[in-house]
Amino acid sequence: MTHFPDLAARLSGHTHVPPELLTGARVRLRQWKASDLPQLAALNADPEVMRHFPAMLVREQSDAHAARMRALIEERGWGFWALDVLGHVLGPANEPQFAGFVGLHTPQAELPFSPCVEVGWRLARPYWGHGLASEAARLALRVGFELLHLDEIVSFTALENVRSQRVMQRLGMHMSAADHFDHPAVPAGHRLRPHCLYRLSRAAWRHQLGTG
What we know:
The protein is α+β, with helices and mostly antiparallel strands.
C-alpha cells in the first residue's frame, strides 16, 4: 500500500477554493447554512439512505454532524460540502434544491491505508440515479488534485454497497481485493464490517482528463 506520512502537514492551514471550482452544469457545492439542517436530518433518518451505515441519526446527531462539517470547511477551506442541485434539473423549480453532501474528508478512524483523504457523498433518495453524485464528486476530486496537490484520493464503503461502488467506478477509481478490510468502527460480526477500498492517483486522474 502507498502511504503519505507527511499528509497532515501538507494539509495544514486554509486553502481558498474559488466558488467556480465548486459549480458544475447541474450541481453546486457550498458551505452549510441553518436552513439545511431539517433536510439533512430527514436524509440521515431515511432507512434506505442509511442502509449501509450502522445506524440512522436522530436530529441532535444530524445537527452535530452538520456543525462538524461546517467547522472543518471554515478551518480548511474544504471538506464535505452541502450539495445543491440546480433548480432546472429535476423539475420546474427555479431555486437550487438541497440534495445532501459531497466532498473530501480525512477519516478519523485508524484505517489500514491511513493517512488518507477520501471522497464521499450522501444524497437524498429523490436525487439518486441521475449521475449527480458523480458530477459533484468530480468537482471535489478537482479540488483535491489541483489545489491540495494530493497524490491519491480514496473512497471506501461496505462490500454490499454496490450502488456507491458504481459511483466510484464511474469516477475512474479502482479496487483491489488485496485492499479489502474490516472497518474498525463497525462491530465484529456486523454485516457492514467488511469494506472495500477504491483508489485514484493524480496521474490516473490527469490521464482521464487527457492532461497527463
